[in-house]
Protein 1
Amino acid sequence: MSTTRDIAILGAGMHPWGKWGRNFVEYGVVAARAALADAGVPWRDVQFVSGAATIRNGYPGQVAGATFAQALGWQGAQVNTSYAACASGSQALAAARAKILAGECEVALVIGSDTTPKGFLKPQPGDRPDDPDWVRFRIGITNPTYFALYARRRMAMYGDTLADFAAVKVKNAEHGLSNPNARYRKAFKADEVAASPIVADPLRLMDICATSDGAAALIVSSLAYASRIGKANAPRVAAVSTVTPSFASALVEMPDIATDSAIAAPAQSFRAALPRKAYEQAGIGPEDVSVAEVYDLSTALELDWMEDLQLCARGEAAHLLRAGETRIGGRIPVNPSGGLACFGEAVPAQALAQVCELTWQLRGQAGARQVADAKVGITANQGLFGHGSSVIVKR
Amino acid sequence: MSTTRDIAILGAGMHPWGKWGRNFVEYGVVAARAALADAGVPWRDVQFVSGAATIRNGYPGQVAGATFAQALGWQGAQVNTSYAACASGSQALAAARAKILAGECEVALVIGSDTTPKGFLKPQPGDRPDDPDWVRFRIGITNPTYFALYARRRMAMYGDTLADFAAVKVKNAEHGLSNPNARYRKAFKADEVAASPIVADPLRLMDICATSDGAAALIVSSLAYASRIGKANAPRVAAVSTVTPSFASALVEMPDIATDSAIAAPAQSFRAALPRKAYEQAGIGPEDVSVAEVYDLSTALELDWMEDLQLCARGEAAHLLRAGETRIGGRIPVNPSGGLACFGEAVPAQALAQVCELTWQLRGQAGARQVADAKVGITANQGLFGHGSSVIVKR
Amino acid sequence: MNDTVAGCNAQPFLEGWFTLDAERPQLLGNRCVACGTVYFPKLKSGYCRNPDCDGERFEETPLSRSGALWSYSNAAYQPPEPYAQVDKDAFRPFAIAAVELDKEKMIVLGAVVAGVGVEQLKVGMTMELKLGALADGKLTWMWAPAGAQA
Amino acid sequence: MNDTVAGCNAQPFLEGWFTLDAERPQLLGNRCVACGTVYFPKLKSGYCRNPDCDGERFEETPLSRSGALWSYSNAAYQPPEPYAQVDKDAFRPFAIAAVELDKEKMIVLGAVVAGVGVEQLKVGMTMELKLGALADGKLTWMWAPAGAQA
Ligand SMILES: [Zn+2]
Ligand SMILES: [Zn+2]
């Protein structure tokens, strides 16, 4: 495909992940100003503000695009706020990409920020039998249950072991050790993971990611604008896939208690469809990928993603892991940032944080966690209710 | 500007406005199926579902794009959900337009649907001094207060009278009499408006719009796709403006209790900026407009919009009204659908309902409320927190 | 948790989601008359979710009582509300099953009856539907290894 | 509503939003040290909202006590909570003013003191700041025609 389908990433900025307990607007402004400074772009040049909503921070969170446009100073930019659970950041990026490719704007700010409550997420009070989220909690099915079901299925189908899952954690903890934006910077040994309490068999506490506060922002532009300011060689977004599932969706997904019935239509994998569309958009194949940032809500899920990304055949992910190929220095490093294991999830910011990491990797600015000669990076994530995304960045 | 900036409106569909008390998903599916049927487009051809969120219907409302993609049948379309208060529908349309102009998809479904609670909207419980919405209600400033302040200002500045405001209601009620999608289909006399109780001086109950349930959907496409299915002459979206305010924003707007301070930057009108950007995008001027659908949250606000749309000079709107020029048959009919006066506001659907009406007007399918030889239509609306939009439709 | 339910007056936690036959309970879904797709929980929007079907008529249908264990887990800690809460010390971990129904071609989740832990489960084994009580005494559906004494 | 406040122990409904000087109360905003823009309510994000200013330092500033009436209205019905509620029959409509502060170049809303209805207001007239009590006795700022006896 021609390069006219690409947009440039001029700047990336984050507010460090943590449990800071402050207003999400503060984090977002820090990330946005960092991205603008990194890009060398004045705020008034930004013609489109594409916000990823947070639904746990009152009305300002639900209008995140406008909230940040105001916080940075109303200057007449067009605005959009997208919500798509864990894929919100990617939807916001997709909106900016379309706006730029449509010739509607040259430079856009894409931003997501969150302040998360402490403890496990739980539903609103009150009896709501029509809400699948209420039903599943009522009978005792929490978020980790779903990750655990996928993990156990891998063990049964492919022979993955608890030691494999622990090895993902050990690898990601090592990757994130020196990442200044990571919340957890602590090395783990496999026996420490094994010794952590079981949350949802077969997953231990150390297999499952926490929730965090954090913010990430990108400045993206047309290639023409990038050239004009002397950044023709900036990394590029080559694809943003935000496809929905195809009926019948084969995998039971949060918050549902059942899958679609495949009586009248074939069962299909949603997760695998996400990168497939991204590869198609970018005209790039899995063999071209140098580095991947995937949504390790659990350690085992990282292995599912590797296969959905076609970085190896179905069932082969643990082999790559065991061979050290997914570590920095291996054939295809996965989560060099440290992943969700080191960050904890800040929902609207997380998909953008993945793209920030790829930007720094492709620029060669990732310091101790640099993947040598990274040329093409891919992200993957999935959220509730048929949301997910995969982004391809190249240079 | 070249026609490559346009997209085609192939289908429009609505669920009638009312106070039905059913789930918003039901209304939306009815509207979407009506729009698909009107377009003659099979659901599987739709490659992008652009939903306008509703924030009062639980999680399914916050992921409206995905909710309707699922309700109509997951088929792998890309998805987006936008939220922008009263402008949500236009943001969803803007997202679809950019996606099509970017060459990312050929056909999109744009959809908004709402079930609204009874009575005046009021904020969540609990003390929240950092939330302007809480502060203003705490000291007794409700939504009608803002409309009333604007109305009184018109009276002081331009000599508008209560009779003028009542005349807007009488006109819109007459327009909406035969509209099958309108909630209120009842003729009003000026003295009935005057006799209705004062809500917020100078506005009477009949000057202020209600909240409703309702749904509206559009099928939009590239011009190439429209030609291919024999609809080269379909009405076109020529512009979607979703600009934010420019600091310092001059008008005190819901839910704020003060304007920006204009000490360091000049005070600027947000409402006037919205159509200005639309005209610029479309390469069309106010003199080309045949019909307008504007957000008459109050009768007096319709007059403000006429001036913001540059359909007349500032302060002259009541003259046009008195001369009958804004009635169907006049020089520039305003709200031939009957407007919010006859519909009541269904937030995420309303901006799309405006475009549905213009579509039918431009096709000559508006029946008893047809504006003769309508060629160019414009919409305008404004919501909370720096959101607003203006859409231009032409044939 | 307590799965001794026969003959008691326990109420289901949701009405119309499953039969109360203590011996042979069944989940209650509905089926699109046009294309045969089965929904559990029942589809209430009135519009079939098969993208190639415009069906708007649905009839109630009981689901198969048994299927193959697709995967399983457990709740090692007490889930938050609305799960009925017990005293912290009284909480016993319980297993959770994802069971694939052959006829309906779908996977349905549920708790596993008390007394059956993850160590007694194996992917692929046959599971069947039982009733069991939540901590507040309300009945729910539960999965049990086929042939096990509930 | 009750505007007899001098000498009583009434508390403000929000702390730090206005001074409690019964004679000459003032709204409390803050001002960007870099560009001079004034914020009311105080800007708390720490980042100036002037798009051409990167200011991150703010100092508290009292607002002008008087300005020109930009527009006005009233609450003919009792507003919903969190407005302090009174018995339906006890509710008296009250006026609301939007006042333009010359020095700050901004418009600030507020209720008008009890006893002054819309018929006594005229766009352009000078209004000044007073204190008044909400139905629960908490103090708020209110606008009054300049020179009127509060
Ligand atoms: Zn069907
Ligand atoms: Zn400043």
Protein 2
Amino acid sequence: MKWYITKRLLWTLVAAWIALSLTFGMLAASPNQGQMQATMSCAAVGEDPEECREDFRERNNLDAPITERYTNYMINMVTLNWGWSESRSQDVIGAILSAWPYTAQYAIPVLLISTVIGYGLGLYSAYKPYTKTDYAASFVSFFGISIPNFWFALILILLLGVPLDIIPTYYNSGVPVQQGWFSLTNFQQLLIPTFVLLTASLAFQMRYCRAQAIEQMNQEFVKVAKAKGASDYRLMIWHVLRMAAVPLSTSLVSRLLAVFWGGSVIIEQIFAIPGLGLLSFTALVEQDTPLILGTTVIGVLLAILGNLVEDLAYVVLDPRIDYGDR
Amino acid sequence: MATDSFENIDWDDQEVSTINVSRTTFVELGLFALLLGAFLYDYLIIQNEGPLVANWDVLSTDWLFIATLITMFFHIVLPLYQNPRMRRFYWNRFKKNQIAVLAGVFLVFIFVVGVVGPIVMDPPEVRFTNRIVPPAGITATIGGATKTGTMAAPLGTDAKGRSILKLVVYGMRVSMQVGLIATTFTVVIGALVGAVAALATAIDVGWLDEVLMRYVDIQAVFPSFLLLLLLVYLFGAQLWIIIMVYSLLSWEGVARTVRGEALQRSSEAYVTAALASGANMMYVVRRHLIPNSANSIIISATVSIPGFILGEAGLAFLGFSDPTVFSWGRTISNGQTNLSQAWWISTIPGIFLFLTVLSFYYVGEALRDAMDPRQQVDSGGGGL
Amino acid sequence: MSTEPLLTVEGLKTHFHTEDGTVKAVDGVDFDVRRGETVAIVGESGSGKTVTSESVTKIIDIPPGEIVEGSVTFDGMELSSMSSQELQSIRGERISHIFQNPQNGLNPVYTVGRQIAEVLKIHKDGLSKRERRRKVVDLLDRTGIPEASARVDDYPHEFSGGMKQRVLIAMALARDPDLLIADEPTTALDVTIQAQILQLLEELQDDFDMSIIFVTHDLGVVSEIADRVVVMYSGKVMERGDIESVFQNPSHPYTQALIECLPGRGDSMRRIEGSLPDPTDPPEGCRFSPRCEYATDGCKAGDQPPMYPTDGDETHTASCVYYGPEHDAGVIEEIGVGDQQSTRADGGERQ
Amino acid sequence: MSETLLEVRNLKKHFPITQGLFNREVARVRAVDGISFTVERGETVGLVGESGCGKSTAAEAILRLEEPTDGSVLFDDQDITTYDDQELKGFRREAQMIFQNPDSSFDPRMTVGESIAEPLEIHGVGPRSRREEIARDLLDRVGLNADDADRYPHELSGGQKQRVALARALVVNPRMIVADEPVSALDVSVQADVISLLKDIQAEFDLSILFISHDMSVVREMCDRVAVMYLGEIVELADTETIFENPQHPYTKALLSAIPTLDPTRRGIDSGLTGEVPEPSNPPAGCNFYTRCPEVIQPDAIDVDQAAYRGVMDLRVTLKRQGIELDGLREFVGLDDDQTPSETDIADMCSELRREHDIPDRLDDREAESTLSEALDQIVREEITDGVEQLGELFESPCERTNPAPRPTSAGHAAACLHYDDEPVEADTGWVPEAAQGD
């Protein structure tokens, strides 16, 4: 057991290192956007753009050999000194730390609810396959994964926000500060964004759980359990769900993160929620390279951490693993 | 003459077996060579200035689109055409799912209009004279003035007076290009990596398989949308760059499927039978492993196409996509400002986007049921 | 053996509604099982023997399966009209089931002991944790698992095929059932392991005083363990009777054909022409008529002939017109099991 | 040319088990551990044994689908283990294979005609049209009709697919067919069809067949001679009737007595075998079968009832190969973890050990009984190693020391068992049939 866990931890570090190197590689290989932004802002102010470009390269020692820049970049990354954000005039880490609560406040509920309800629906439609409820459930799941989240948000704003105006269509970032994170108004203003994100993640969880559950239900040990006199409830939970949890656990986090990241940038832009999504959006608009790098790396590291959680869950859930193999 | 029978094969002169490239593959390679030649001519000789053919200046995405159409023709349309029995078998099972048939028809419509439309119809032009006109037959009050739509712009116009109908038609082409080109590249790269990995295990070059699969694990973990944003920012937002970035970021699913299929099939009896008759590993890969994974490739492709379309639309909505291209996402985003009065600007393209993506998912589901009975839930047997 | 049968199945019809039509897997089956008796249901694949055994306690999944007709009376209770809760209280308690493929009959993520204890918990045995563990160890020991007390906490993947089947038998006997339905329990096992399992079932049948329904396609196994036998073909019963009379004097042409095409019997093997009928639209008249060498037009019309007694023996009946009125049973030539060399070595010493 | 088409000499196939980062070899699965036999022209030789005995691996090693670890395979007097790729390809044309599972024997995307013609395509024979014509002709010969050629495998039944497999094997006009459990997946009535077709085709084309099966009655129907395999080795080889009428090796006897008979009046199925087949990665020392053999030879020092001796041997085997977990025993007797066992507990535990291994309470040989009860006492008091040693000294059987080579028996054929006196049967091959022995 320990050997497997240490192997997985080592692998997580290697993956993180490769991720950082890849982002550095992409940065180095690209025409440096930050530099273009600096020259443009100088030209606007009337200074000589060429000279601005020179001192920008100076400050970021872009002319140093690649290995030296690489090691600096890595050291900075590891020591959490991720550089200075021009557009927010604060250090990147600070910006991220100030923004993440706004994302977490709706992200965590979305992840939890979509998993609990998603698995519940998935199990139910696997329990009664090819019935009306199953067809209805699968249509809802198709709807959930097909509907473009930004368009769905606009439609909801159009239908609910404008006429019913009790549901705010824009997020007032002051509310959590004055009335606290769990106040009613904060809840109200998060209603539409959470619902939009929820449909997509719920749909994914449901489809995946239904497929795994149906596969497990065809196994012989379910028939044996039924022959033991087990009730349908005990069969579905203790046998089918418990067994499906093994494959489900290997994609619990990464699958959700994939759906989630896409949605959060768009949702926070539409509803002006000052979370990590909006942070990376404004960074891109302002062409603030360090901040862009920061938000991307946070996303990648979170995904890698999620992968580690999945691997450990796999070990706990499936006694069959012979601890030698991957 | 009496039917030939196996006894009278004279084995002495049958020693060497040539690698015979079939006629169709030969034609396909020829077409690709032609395409490459035209591209080099356009790129090097006339430095992409004037139009290449008649008045059609072939843009970067078009080259990719033509290459995709050629690949799709030779690997999907032609094989189905060549053996009717297989086609009938799959069609009978596919048409059991009426919604999928409907979705299929809709997709064909989108594809044809998307390809033909922009050739026939000139691009949407800005005319401030008839800004924000509602669709034909609908009256709406915009900024005090009430207007009713006319057939001139059947679906109404946007804030810059561009006809929504044209925007939608051009949007179809963009979505089709993104979906099909990116998927074709993902399939080609993924199948290649998957086959190489499976082959490596089969001929005991274990470490190569291990390296490839570890990279695939990393790529599977990366949140592709975030990376997309970063790469588009770093390398510019032209459509073909977005498509290539998408292709390079999301082939891991196909690689895993092809590798899994190939490994599982290489232990099947008909592969051992081929080996027992003297076939070498390359013959087995070419004749058995790759064609057999075609089914699961097609299934995973029909699921990845909508993913790419939604991704590009999201990018366009945020304003990071190619400004010169009329993507649905961009049109929806532009309609965001005057959403309350001019609801149609965002809604109509959104409906098309939603239906296209939904259709792909339904067609994908029906294809999986038709092609891969193993994954199908059989009626008898276990369960409650 | 008391005369009142423990289980009586009358006119059982179980159909499956699939996309390409209704599969009439079981289309009118009658048999009964007395206490302490072993009844074998024998037939080839597609004969409906498994569906029959699974219809008794409605283990088949509904939908797409459906028990269209027929009654299943067990110890005075009518099972076919029972609610699923009532059925659940019978399964594992009064009637238990073991299946063909031991390899994945056990849930791989729970220990063997826990899965056996589950039966006791479901049926509220009222034992304390320690007492229940002792009972599980005792059950494992009685089904021949070596070192039972040490192996109770092992996981299924640590057991061989033969051992897993013993665990499943222990699980089935946990609540001391009256009837055990064994669906081809030894088909997936090697012949020496099969011998051990068959012997074990015989011993346990006496210890637990239970009846057994033994479903198999192997006539050898039938003759080893069965008291009475039911021969099924394409969803219907062809022949039924005591083991000696059916094997000494097989009456229905299908039973004869089954016996004669067994390999290793010395004389040349007979082959059955044609192929299995399509379950969605079975042939008219006797189901075996399209492949039967004695078939007359009478056989090919109307519905399946009733179970006529053969040569005056009420308990040995066959569904064939030749044993009915105005037909001459002599037409079907006599063959018997006795006159063929047994594949078992006679010379070798017997333990 | 000599009558023998195939001669296998001391063929071995081991699979290394590797572990850890550098794939160190920690154990070897000795799937085939030195088998020798011959197949004459037009003869059918059966390779029989239970799952895990290595019969399928042997077949694949003979055809070099798996590279043999040791030994040689002579086909037409030439050793194919020395062939290079080109020669091997020529050999492949002469020896073909058919498989157990009809569903996975054919590529689902190829028509029946294409599958049959595939060996021709591999050997570069003629244009497509000629291959197709040959395939259609062959379909008639195996009892199907020519226009089945355009059908796909999923449209055929199991029996029909095995016929097509036979056609595919015949298309290159081979001299030998290796049939790996060709009828095991079929119903009895369909089995009869395929077996009689196989026999007719063998007669028509004078084929030699290596027939692999676990079903003794099918083997009796098909084969002229039978080799019985156990844990990677051949324990007995003779012509079919002798094996069935007068088996010599204890395993063959057990195998035959486990087969259910058709006659209900002669019931009583008792193979007398206990326990399971040992792990091939760590086969028992000496004779492989001693861990389960009902006729295991008692050392001269003792004379005990054979069943009781088998019980003691079972106990010794458990001690040696898996070890005994005393806390399981203590729990069985009702002792708590820390409680020291009283005298009666010790006695109970000893009698439980006896009961679990079917050892009677008292052995009739006085000396054996005292050694046994003393050893049990030590084991239960956790001095397991001394107990094992004590048991070993007295009860060790000669079968544990020597792995017997094949020896002549009274029935006129050889069996690898110490029951028969130690006279070498034949020079090197060991299993050369009497006929060849004579001249």
Protein 3
Amino acid sequence: MHSPTFSMSSTPLEPEVLKKELLDSHAGALATFEGWVRNHNEGQPVDQLEYSSYPQLAEKEGQRIVAEALERFEIDAAIAQHRVGLLPIGGIAVWVGVSAAHRGAAFDACRYIIEEIKSRVPIWKKEYYSTGVTDWVNCHQET
Amino acid sequence: MHSPTFSMSSTPLEPEVLKKELLDSHAGALATFEGWVRNHNEGQPVDQLEYSSYPQLAEKEGQRIVAEALERFEIDAAIAQHRVGLLPIGGIAVWVGVSAAHRGAAFDACRYIIEEIKSRVPIWKKEYYSTGVTDWVNCHQET
Amino acid sequence: MQLTITYFALLRDQRGLDTETIDSPAATPAELYTQLAEQHSFTLPSSALKVAVNDDFAHWTTPLKDGDTIVFIPPVAGG
Amino acid sequence: MQLTITYFALLRDQRGLDTETIDSPAATPAELYTQLAEQHSFTLPSSALKVAVNDDFAHWTTPLKDGDTIVFIPPVAGG
């Protein structure tokens, strides 16, 4: 069993490099998830996107999530990485990979990790719309 | 929506190339599955593995599966490719990738495709054990 | 009736060839498999197999026609 | 009591700075946020936030100590 790995990166994510770290002759199944910057959100055209994080707590919480996945599911290894900084359309915002002897556990753990990252890790997303307006996603104000 | 794509390949699979075909500025989520040749099966050390197929029917049935996934799930595109021939330990036997606006559909469709491939597509696996013995997986004889 | 049978995987090993065209009175794939299994000592029961006629899945009771190509499909193991 | 507050995302924009150290009588993060929200017209209700003290998640009622670093965490949106 590998050590839990979650990290933030300010440079483009490299799925092939991350995947190699999971390659293990024991494993038979690899499930991965990639989140890409979309060109729209709730109907508004998006030009680019900026992720920022609370780095000390983000890495800590991310590593807890990967450790939980290793404990809950019959998997060999898991890696997750989240991008921060300014991303263009089509850029990779997050990558999660899980290797396991059997595919069910690989899928379940991969999904668990991405769901928990999205709900628990202190990372924020600022969208830059084609109109010139920007918005912090999920922080809509009443005013 | 892209056309359903399933193919057999007698040369090593290239996930990065397949993934590029799914890249679409609309999509926000990519779920992938890779099956690798394991170094053991049911406790027996495996040296290498040979996949063979009934090509005419395998491609037809695989394409039906991908078409079903495109119909059942809210996804943008799906690609699946299965290797035939002699594979070393760690070689990629199968690759499935699904892109979608939302991650739930991407995961569900990816899992659907790999499950259906495994149960319906006429592909056979011959294992070469370290003992020199070979065996057609799932064809155990009573004698 | 002329029927072509193509063999894959374990059945190919047990038959010792890839494909053959035979003259058979078998009216259905079920009858044909019974005949071949007896002749060549195939170990897989028909309940473990699927059948394809002319490169698509078919029923065991589908009537066979002269010139049909039949494949008996051993348990699959892709992925 | 000296408390350091670090701001992220929308709260950073609304406060107009990254971090500040203030002298506050607030005994808990809940009291501190009420004070700051009033002072700086923060729009997010505390019910939408989580709170961290010294770089780990904490309760709104955790007693604050001199020198603590507090972060109010706006709704996250990773992935």
